[in-house]
Design brief:
395 residues, alpha/beta, 17 strands, elongated
Length: 395
């Protein structure tokens, strides 16, 4: 069903409820990474330029339905005011009289109102309709520009949209959907996907969907050990999911049936008792040793295939990226993706760890698109319905 974009909504001089994803890291009471805030500036600027009063809803962290000061959006509102170069009125609640009073004195077209963390109330994650009604605050238009939570059936994402005749997507969501639809429907070939991270269980549907669309699938991270074990390789004491060995075997068989390349590590950086060394998959990982990163031969093999790609999707680190000694594989993929972009490939990176790797290398601007949504990106590419989008569909 069609979705209305920002330009199709009656935002001029309107009171507009805007769901954003301002779930940013804080350090010592200040925003440590403002990339998610910067991503929504165009939507807020468009609303202000139209004379609208943007009323911002967002979450921060996982306070589990309780008021926890360390998850307050107050520091986020302060940073937003600096980036937007406009007054931002922060309200220390998201429902009730404090909000009503603030909205009465707010100036449309001149300032933004940011309400407190919606997850301070249990009704948010319960997708409670009564809580959603309390969040409306007399707004005439609802806009969702929080791509990172579109896969959540929460009150400020799903239930609230049912209360509005005029509802649609912001500029960030519009851009994200255009990029991901290009991967789903019309990728330039060869299309190579690189998937890492810890668990096969988190990405089983994604892997199945990618096999149907991409030309090659490269697997790294801890999840690769479930596949290596399914192939009969010794993985020592490495983390894996034994209950998913049959699913891994099915994916390997499906790749073969489709004639698709599915590459697993052929060497691994392993560690035990403070010692590290590289071992090949064929010789096997000894008992007591744990695989923490792809090895140098795998790095070269993955980089060679990425060199030929015209479209790349990357999600998930190749190893225990938070420790510097196990960062080489992830850095190698990041460099390869950046070089492919320079050669003209269309490259999309999704997931916090992968983007963090690019940022650490100063290469986050060297790819075509860094997606602001982790789970939402994976769900969309896997073909799963997103509750936040369904709630915005026009009949």
């Amino acid at each position: 069903m069609p979705l209305r974009s920002l330009g199709e909504l009656p935002i001029a001089s309107a009171r507009v409820l805007v769901r954003l994803d301002l779930n940013v890291p804080l350090r010592e009471g200040a925003v440590a990474d403002d990339s998610r805030i910067r991503a929504v500036l165009p939507t807020l600027e468009a609303l202000l330029n139209a004379g609208a009063l943007p009323i911002v809803l967002s979450h921060l962290g996982r306070p589990k339905g309780q008021v926890r000061p360390e998850y307050s959006l107050a520091p986020v509102a302060q940073r937003l005011a600096v980036l937007l170069d406009r007054p931002v009125l922060f309200v220390p609640d998201c429902i009730g009289e404090a909000v009503s009073a603030a909205l009465q004195r707010a100036q449309p077209g001149k300032e933004v109102v940011v309400l407190e963390n919606v997850r301070f109330y249990p009704g948010e994650e319960a997708n409670d309709k009564e809580f959603a009604a309390q969040l409306r605050h007399g707004a005439q238009v609802y806009i969702n520009d929080a791509f990172g939570v579109l896969h959540r059936a929460h009150a400020s994402v799903a239930a609230i949209a049912d209360l509005f005749e005029w509802k649609g997507i912001g500029l960030l969501v519009e851009r994200e959907l255009a990029v991901l639809e290009r991967l789903r429907s019309a990728p330039e070939r060869p299309y190579v996907a690189v998937i890492g991270g810890a668990k096969v269980s988190d990405k089983l549907d994604l892997l199945s969907a990618l096999l149907e669309r991409c030309d090659a699938l490269l697997l790294g991270g801890a999840m690769a050990f479930t596949f290596l074990r399914a192939q009969g390789h010794a993985i020592g004491s490495s983390v894996y999911e034994p209950e998913l060995e049959p699913a891994a075997q099915a994916i390997l068989q499906r790749a073969q049936a489709l004639g698709k390349q599915l590459l697993l590590p052929n060497d691994v950086l392993i560690a035990a008792n403070g010692d590290t060394r590289v071992c090949t998959v064929e010789e096997g990982i000894p008992e007591g040793w744990i695989g923490y990163d792809i090895g140098p031969a795998t790095e070269r093999r993955f980089a060679e295939l990425l060199h030929t790609a015209r479209t790349i999707f990357w999600n998930g680190p190749m190893g225990k990226y938070e420790e510097e000694r196990f960062r080489s594989g992830t850095a190698a993929v990041a460099h390869a993706v950046a070089r492919a972009t320079q050669r003209g490939a269309f490259t999309v990176v999704g997931g916090g760890d992968s983007i963090a790797a690019l940022q650490a290398l100063g290469a986050d601007t060297a790819v075509s698109h860094c997606s602001t949504g982790g789970g939402a990106t994976l769900a969309y590419l896997a073909g799963k319905p997103l509750p936040g989008l369904r709630a915005l569909e026009q009949s």
